[in-house]
């Protein structure tokens, strides 16, 4: 851990080789991905991976995701099956994480002692170049203090972890803006949908040729937890959140001025410093991309409460509503 402030690097060839060198030496580097920024360490170096938990204040029971330069490296960390290879071929590089049986080469700290490991091939060009230069799989959770909303810009990382880490690679704002979809494929006949994200349930079911099982803890927050990322309360802003099936401009107009109102699309005939929206046209891709930065922005201003509207639809809407529900869970 560095006592000095983090340095933010642009993705020049020289900086990338320097950062690859740091990673090989067992240091942490915050990296851009297409979903959110991650905090990376050499996945085969247990000591380096332990630093991730310290820096994030993350319980040792919450496993990390391993990132690979390409699907051909899957056999270095996990035991794939035919269903995994099919999804990998269709969706990698991209926002899909697969849970598979772990190989012994992966230290227990990465998988929080489990016999399974979560793996994905990210799509961000700078991160992929860095993975290739480093030559080793990189374990990385989101680069935020445990429980807080994930960072979607290098500046978000600097603001919350800048005093605890030495290196941040700036790859611009994250294109997807929400964490990857997680599918448990340990048993390919019973694929389980652990977290909604950038790849939709429908597309996964089409590719697998079977329905995804939705674990009970996803349906009923508070039920026994099966995967740590499924903690009901997670991805939470500091400001308490109240969810509404639908928000109207009237509700906001009648509401308190010290409470924030978060719409999918800007409400007609209503603006003000306590009115926020996710996308000018109500586009779900734009909304997913902005959700976490808008929540941070509302935290910065400092309101008593956030009233947020669930968004209609499936696909990305599932992922946005999942994050809103977790933000609102007490
Ligand atoms: O898009 C993403 O997934 C981002 C970027 C950086 O890749 N990563 C991310 O990691 O969001 P994060 O903070 O969600 O942490 C990894 C999560 C854990 O909380 C857990 O839910 C899941 O991955 N996970 C890891 N290993 C697992 C395992 N063996 N079984 C079930 N879930 C696992
Ligand atoms: Mg996280």
> How many β strands by DSSP?
14
Helix content: 25-40%
Which consecutive residue ranges, at least 5 long each, have pLDDT under 50?
221-229
Bound molecules: threonylcarbamoyladenylate, magnesium ion
- The CATH class designation of the largest domain is Alpha Beta
Q: Could you spell the SSE succession in H and E letters? A: EHEEHEHEHEHEHEEEHHEHEEHEH
Distance between the termini: 32 Å
Please list the strands of the largest sheet in the order they lie side by side.
2-3-7-4-6-5-9-10
**Overall pLDDT level:** 93
- Categorize the overall geometry: globular
Q: What structural keywords apply?
A:
330 residues, alpha/beta, DHBP synthase, Rossmann fold, 2 domains, four-stranded parallel beta sheet, 11 helices, globular, binds threonylcarbamoyladenylate, binds magnesium ion
Tell me what the structure shows:
This protein has 330 residues and is α/β, with parallel strands linked by helices. It folds into 2 domains: 7-208, DHBP synthase; 241-328, Rossmann fold (3-Layer(aba) Sandwich), CATH 3.40.50. The chain contains 11 helices and 14 strands. It has helices at residues 13-24, 46-56, 82-91, 108-111, 125-134, 154-161, 201-208, 216-219, 249-254, 284-301, 316-328; strands at residues 7-9, 29-31, 38-42, 65-67, 96-101, 116-120, 138-139, 167-169, 181-184, 192-195, 241-244, 259-263, 275-277, 305-309. Strands 2-3-7-4-6-5-9-10 form an 8-stranded mixed beta sheet, sandwiched between helices. Strands 11-14-12-13 form a 4-stranded parallel beta sheet, covered by helices on one side. It has a two-stranded parallel ribbon with strand order 1-8. A hairpin with a 6-residue loop joins strand 2 and strand 3. Helix 1 packs across helix 5 and helix 10 runs parallel beside helix 11. The two termini are 32 Å apart. It binds threonylcarbamoyladenylate and magnesium ion.
